[in-house]
Amino acid sequence: MAAIDMLASEQIFYGCSPPAGFLTDYSAPVRRPTKLTSRGYSAPSLSILKPVQLSLKSAPRSCIRLSAEKKQKRVVFADDRGYALEQVKFMTEPSHVPPYWALKIVASPPLERKPPPITVDSWEVRFSQPASDYLEFRRRITENCVALENVIVKHNEGAVDGTVKVKNLDFEKEVFIRATSDGWRTQEDTYCAFVESGPLSKNGLSMYDTFGFRLQLPIHSRKLDFCVCFHCKDKEYWDNKNGENYTIEKSSVRKSPAISCARIKYGNSWSRSDVGHTPYW
C-alpha cells in the first residue's frame, strides 16, 4: 500500500511539471509518467532526451502582405450566362459622336419664363420743396406775406398733406388752398388749420404763423394744380409759384415683380414628396 501511494505521488508530480527541455539538461535522463494497468501502477521508465535543433525552412515573412500579382478583371455579359437582355440598342453613329437616343433621355431642363413687368401708378411732386432754399423761402414770406413750406404725398391714404407759413399781420386771418384737376375749368377751395406760432418779436407778438392742410388726390385725373391764398384785413396775398402754380402729377412706372425666396428646410428629414414641390433656385 505504501508503494502504491509513492507511485501515485510520483504520477501527480511528474504529470504537472513543466517541460523537461526548459528545466533540465538534454543529457540527463527524464522520468516518464507511469501507466495504470490491471495489476496496479507500472514502474516509470527512464529515457535520454535528445536535443532538438530548430531550423527555418523559409525567410521570415512580414506582417503586411504585399500582393505582387495583379488580379485579372473579367467582364461577363448576361447573354453569356444564358440570361435574357433587358434592352438592345443598335448605334449607327461614329464612335466620337454621342448617340442620338442619349440626347432624348438626358434632356435639358425647360427655361423658366420671367413674369412680365407690372405697371404701377405713382403721384410725384413736380417742384422742389420750398423750405429747402431757406433764404428764398424767408424772402417770399417777408415780401409776399405767404409761402408754401412743405408737401408730402401719402399714396396709401390718397391725399396730400402740406404746411403754409404766413406773416402775422393781424389776429384775424384766413388761409386756404385753391386746387383744380381739370386745367382750371373747375376749382375747389380747402381752408387750412392753425398749427403753431413762430418766434416772438420785440413787442411780444409772433412774427409768423404756421397752417396745415390736406388735399384729396383726384381719382379720374392724373394731374393736380394748386396755389395758396392768405386773406387778412380785407386783402389777399397769393403764392402761385410766380404764376406757374404747384403741380402734382401721376406717372406710370414699370416695375419687375418681386421674386419669392426659396424655402429652406433644416435637418435631414427629407421625404420623397418634398422633391417635386420644393423650389430649387
UniProtKB/TrEMBL annotation:
Q: Name one GO molecular function term.
A: glycogen binding
Give the GO terms filed under biological process for this record.
regulation of glycogen biosynthetic process
Which GO cellular component terms are attached? protein phosphatase type 1 complex
**What Pfam families does the annotation carry?**
CBM_21
Location of the CBM21 domain: 138-249
Q: Which InterPro entries match?
A: CBM21_dom, CBM21_dom_sf, PP1_regulatory_subunit_3
Q: What is this protein called?
A: CBM21 domain-containing protein
